[in-house]
Amino acid sequence: MNVNAVRQRIPYKFAAEPEDEHILDEQEQEQLVERFRRQNNASNQRHLIGLQIVVTLSCLLHVIYAFSDLTSPLENLFPSTIPDSPLPLSRPLAMISVICHVNIIMDMVPNNPSLNELHLPFKLVYILAWGALPPFFSLLVGKSCNTTAWWCFLEIVSGLVFFVRRWIGQADANITGLQKIRYTASGA
Predict the structure, then answer these.
(1) Mean pLDDT across the stretch 144-162?
(2) Fewer CB in a 10 Å sphere around the end CB: N or C, the chain?
(3) What span, in angstroms and rounded, lies between the C-alpha atoms of 184 and 55?
(4) CA of residue 175 relative to chain centroid, distance
């Protein structure tokens, strides 16, 4: 065997891909951006409907909890061997959670003038801060994992709403950015 044949380097050649040399004119650019905008709006609408369903279900669970025997709904799914008493001030905390949920739901309804008059003044950041207090209090008084996890629902739901809204805002900003980088193609 020849040593030169072993050492000889054969460069790997990529298959030449045909390049798209088509330059979009102003109308084609506008149509493309408009198509992206429609797709983005449809995606945003699906995300908002999903969020409304999640927040509404969580709100209903809190309403049921407030008017029941104050047993954590998670206790039915994951029964514990040690009975746990409810968190002190459970009913007022549950009702405040319901108010926070209703505020989130009303904030997600787009431009409904009748709801805008009823809009509560809570910002999502304050709801996130409020949602952290009951689980902390539950840990502080030594409640079970089920009770602590139950009181995390408002925090989880409001955090989910916060991040999905942020993603929606970023997607809208990306569409606006596409609008700004359009170019003018000189015609013949």
Answers:
(1) 87
(2) C
(3) 45
(4) 19
